[in-house]
Amino acid sequence: MDPQDRCQTICRWLTADQHRDYTPWLDNDRRLHELLARLEALGTAAFDAGPPLETPASRPHRPGPAAAPTGKQASR
Asked: Residue 42: which of 11, 24, 34 has the closest Cα?
């Protein structure tokens, strides 16, 4: 079987029941493609804008001064 034979579109008429059942799937597929296109556009715009500014969340963690030990201390 030629690989291109598997990539052909097939047109089918749906029954009313199939149409009712498949409509949410088709709507979800359209919405997914719209969201993916928006995400790709946002990613491209972010990339084109250049490197991000350093934010506190993006800095490596630097431990502060050592805290006093906690727990029970001997009374003697």
From this structure: 34
